[in-house]
Amino acid sequence: MQTILLINGPNLNKLGTRNQGIYGTKTLLEIEEDLSKEAVSQGFAIKPFQSNHEGQLIDFIQSESSNASGIIINPGGLAHTSIVLRDALVDSNLPTVEVHISNIYEREEFRHKSVTEFSDIKSVVGEGWQGYFSALSQLIKKVRIG
Asked: Is residue 73 scored above 80 in pLDDT?
């Protein structure tokens, strides 16, 4: 069974209680469990990881990318600031889909640019927690096509 890394950055551990008007009431654990069930039904395993620390996200990508077929990442606020996280994603050589629960292009101007997004990455923005399922679908299609 092929593995997809599911990476969530700072503050996403607070989903379900954090600013519910923007992020909804579903917890990160609930999202991980539901996404894992969907992935398994399509012959894939999900390996979830969340950290509030940039270096731990990079360490996870570096240590796990050789055993994975793709990455779904919600870098949170690091999307707007972290060149080193972007570099780790590029260096993984894995197809990657970036997820943002809210529509970052309709929020504060500083959120409009994602430095973690690059030419080989697809993005899902503003679909709420369901965006993780859109990302999974895109990623599985990309992995199967090659």
From this structure: yes
